[in-house]
Batch of 2 targets.
Target 1
Amino acid sequence: MGKIIGIDLGTTNSCVAFVDNGEPQVIPNAEGSRTTPSVVSFSKDGERRVGSVAKRQGVTNPETTVFAIKRLMGLAFDAEPAQKHARVVPYRVVESTRGDAAVQIEDHQYSPPEISAMILDKMREVAESFDAQRSATIAAGKIAGLNVRRIINEPTAAALAYGFKEKEGKRVAVYDLGGGTFDISILEISNGVFSVKSTAGDTHLGGEDLDNALVEELARRFEDSSGINLREDRVALQRLKEQAEKAKHELSSSLSTEINLPFIAADESGPKHLETKLKRSELEILVSEIIDQTLGPCQQALDDAGVKREDIDEILLVGGQSRMPMVQSKVADFFGKQPHKGVNPDEVVAMGAALQGAALVGDVEEVLLLDVTPLSLGVETGGGVFYKLIPRNTTVPTRSKEIFTTSVDNQSFVPIHVLQGERDMAEDNKSLAKFELAPILPAPRGVPEIEVTFDIDADGVVNVSAKDLGTSREQNIRVVASSGLTEEDIERIIGEADAYKTSDQKRRDLAELRNAAEALLYTSERAVAECRELVPEEVIAQVEADVEALHVCIDEGDAIAIKDALETLELSAYKIAEAMYGNVDLDAPVESEAQSDS
Ligand code: AMP
């Protein structure tokens, strides 16, 4: 078996690691760097470069240099984040034939996964060349092509790298602010078991937003002094961006820096240079609000995990942007304690992934990784109501079981509609699969017992089974819970559920009222048919009139009217029972014969 490597395919930089003698180690690239820029460039003759060479030549050929491709992954061309991205990058973002966002270089179109694959390929090369040097020590060290063993989320990987030797129980917040995305996760680590309690974040918030704020400031300063607007000049803008990012890095360790961009523009009077000083405090004023945007998701993650700020034992910083002192101080203020130092924020993800890989093949003592479901899973029930069997943020692997029944007499099959989402009504959620449990034995509604089980394994694969407890007949289906869903989708779905909460609740109440009304109609109509000869005519006539009235109300769909008609029918139907059994209190507990005799 080939050695398992862990790769962090980052928005800005990528990193690859493997586990040697139980210890995770980052593999440096050919230039000796431990991380490789996630940049791909194409030269005029079609030659492709990846990594720092690509990044360097991006200054002179910005239109043919692709960076931050991860931000476009899985986005439709007209999606707002794709449009936002297209406005700030020098390369052309176009619409592919499938409607997705793609990158146009000369007359060739590349999809975001294609560009990402080029970066992954480079990381494979890094690992391979290293592996060749060390063939004596790495057993069977051939990494030919990538066989994806498991995809784990970044914060989880980071916590793995940090805590794989941790023995006592700890509650950890992983704050991951990278170039393009922000994630916060709350995990519990104890005895090698990693359990993600909640995750939240913003897929379009990161270091680049800080760069853009700084670019805007520099462009403003230049315009003020020279009257020239650099924002329209793609080449100048790219140089500005490079310098802005560099200045931002420098201001993480010094209190002021200088920005020099000679020959950035020219007018009739000759070439113009951008020369300006920037203080750390000035940068902080520019970006303070952007960093504050990470705190909302932090609170959300705490709430979802059901813990308070003071319950967090360690805060782990991940992502290059978390090196900024202001980020660290805001995080410290929010949680009321200093974040953990000593883990390299650029490398932890790849190291954690390598550890997980090693655990998969038994190279290190088993670590158990528990992830969470991003969205709720369940089935459609009577009246189109979505019934959740596994709520979102449940730790996987997990299993949940529930007994359902039929809604029609002599139903010959039970349709099972598996859905994923947060809305109350089935039709508003994502349909994952449909199948039928058939045949089932003919029986009155409400009698058959159908046991539905949801089983999610550690890879997020959901096995749904339905079993008729009467006959033990069983049917099942396997689905991947989040197939086709990007993090973006997940955020949107959760947001929509909040926005529609009140109207969804109304629709759900109405559907449930209808279900109750239909059940009462069913028993009342049966009672009329069976007891017609045995109870006074006026009782039957009243029930029949109330049944009719309830039918009309259901057709009209007014919740209050249905409720009133339902209560009226309940009272008149009760009279049938009264007439049949004498004046008994049907709600009174049934006494045993022995007790009533005594
Ligand atoms: P990542 O996606 O984790 O590679 O993070 C990359 C982001 O971190 C980019 O926006 C970088 O500009 C930023 N970054 C890297 N190093 C530093 C630093 N020393 N100070 C501030 N930001 C940094």
Target 2
Amino acid sequence: MRGQPDRPPISEASPDRLCAALDGQPTYRADQLRQALFRTSATGFDQMLTLPAETRAALDQQFRFESLRLLRAQRSTDGTRKALFHTWDGAAVETVRMPTERPGAATVCLSSQAGCGMGCTFCATGALGLTRNLTAAEILDQFLYVRRRASRPAAVDRAVFMGMGEPLANLPALETAAARLAGAAYVGLSARRVTVSTVGLPAGIDAMASWGLPLGLAVSLHAPDDGLRATLAPIARRFPLPALMEASRRYQQAVRRRVTYEYTMLAGVNDARAQAVDLARLLRGQRCHVNLIPFNTYPGAIFRASARPRIRAFRDELRQRGVPVTIRRTRGRDISGACGQLHAGMLAAGAGTRRSNGAAGGRAARPAAGARP
Ligand code: SAH
Ligand code: SF4
């Protein structure tokens, strides 16, 4: 798929552009087209059988059906699946499909960027640096690719932006993709089933609040104080906790939803009882929920996972202080498909392909990508 593509991808085409493509056809054709694109298992224009053959051929001449090319698919023993895609210019993107409690149902974990420029010191994607933002089509097509190939497409009904990249560093594409995932005329998921996870960019959270969609918000916190937080997520130096907590509270009020705080449990770093006490104090009075994430290791990781009893003790400490809290069930570890294990660029292009890093510093101590601990 190298070389500038001749046709734009259809999943992000504007309503006007679609109408123009259907020029001269009855108005219900646009609805049929959107239905076929966003709600059915059709994997090519030729399979959109509600549309006349000439229309399908005309669409094929004007648009690309999918913006991603599958390079590799892997399946975990727990049913999690990971897909490695290439964009037209060879950027590598990973998408994870996770089964949920209901039979046949699944959540799709989406990437918003190829790589990530935020440089978190415990994250495999962070070690890659940023290759580039994904387009709205490249984000949407991850979801559509998975859903179109599911045995019960409608049961693939949740999307979480917890794959590669920082979604709030890619706001225009995120807004279009989220609006289409949650839009009744498009994919039609409930906005409540679309969750954006952020490293904690206050202006991005405010932008999300202005979209008028009650999207789920998950804020990656990892530490109850700025000093420790900055060693884990260097961007925290630019956006300290008071500003982040204010933006999060504004979101809770604007959207009338609880915010989730993610807290990756790192042995001897952020898992002490006293830190749970501080965390409860930080979150006092908020409509929130804490999700403790067991650390998922990867080649070159410089942290270790907290022991299970420590994670449970941390949870109990928060609970006693009235903070709703759960421990995340980790999925797909054996295929490096769990949170923070996505490192597509490294796998696809070989180690040492780190590109530009748009983050605020703090990466000097990191071992070379691909190095063993
Ligand atoms: N950039 C966004 C979303 C992608 S990361 C963010 O940082 O929130 C999704 C979640 O995985 C974040 O909460 C992140 O802190 C967590 N994570 C990253 N590396 C991890 C690892 N190695 N083990 C467990 N969780 C990790
Ligand atoms: Fe980027 Fe999120 Fe990984 Fe930090 S944790 S490097 S923000 S993907």
